[in-house]
């Protein structure tokens, strides 16, 4: 089982109001320069929010939502500090309610 960490926000906030594309480009460049494997994904309407355990989290976030999901908790903490108006958390997959997180991730 893998632990995934996430930052969750409305698509409008993260993709239109914030200069978030620059953040992702810089992070991708950093990973390539340091020969690190990409360990984060930008996911519109993340499927993990449909799990019964995530009902209260989904209710807190304006829809449609978008998430940055990563196996790197420090990256998610950094994003939270940079963005402020986001929800953070974690989940483990595969589990009974979240069968395969990576299979349900459709990146943009």
Descriptive notes:
It comes from Dulcicalothrix desertica PCC 7102. Belongs to the ycf54 family. It is a single chain. The chain has 108 residues and is of the alpha+beta class. The chain has a single domain (2-93), classed as Alpha-Beta Plaits (2-Layer Sandwich), CATH 3.30.70. It is 35% helix and 25% strand. The protein has helices spanning 11-17, 20-33, 55-60, 73-83; strands spanning 2-10, 40-44, 65-70, 87-93. The protein has a four-stranded antiparallel beta sheet. The longest helix is centred in the N-terminal third of the chain and has 14 residues, at 20-33. The relative contact order is 0.30.
Supply the key terms.
108 residues; alpha+beta; Alpha-Beta Plaits; 4-stranded antiparallel beta sheet; 4 helices; globular; DUF2488 domain-containing protein; Ycf54
The CATH architecture is 2-Layer Sandwich
Helix content: 25-40%
Mean residue pLDDT: 88
Strands of the widest sheet, in order across it, are 2-3-1-4
The tally of helices reads: 4
- Which stretches of 5+ consecutive residues score pLDDT under 50? none
Task: Determine Rg (CA atoms, Å).
Answer: 13 Å
Question: Judging from the principal axes of the Cα atoms, what is the shape?
Answer: globular
How far from one another are the termini? 25 Å
Number of strands: 4
* CATH topology assignment: Alpha-Beta Plaits
State the name of the first-level CATH class: Alpha Beta
The CATH homologous superfamily corresponds to Uncharacterised protein family Ycf54
* Helix/strand order, N-terminal first: EHHEHEHE
Q: What is the count of structural domains?
A: 1
């Amino acid at each position: 089982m893998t632990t995934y960490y996430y930052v969750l926000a409305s698509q409008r906030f993260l993709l239109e109001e914030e200069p978030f594309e620059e953040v992702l480009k810089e992070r991708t460049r950093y990973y390539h320069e340091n020969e690190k494997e990409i360990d984060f994904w930008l996911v519109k309407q993340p499927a993990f929010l449909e799990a019964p355990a995530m009902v209260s989290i989904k209710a807190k976030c304006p829809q449609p939502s978008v998430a940055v999901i990563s196996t790197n908790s420090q990256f998610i903490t950094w994003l939270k500090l940079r963005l402020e108006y986001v929800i953070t958390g974690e989940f483990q997959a595969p589990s009974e309610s979240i069968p395969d997180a990576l299979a349900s991730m459709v990146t943009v």
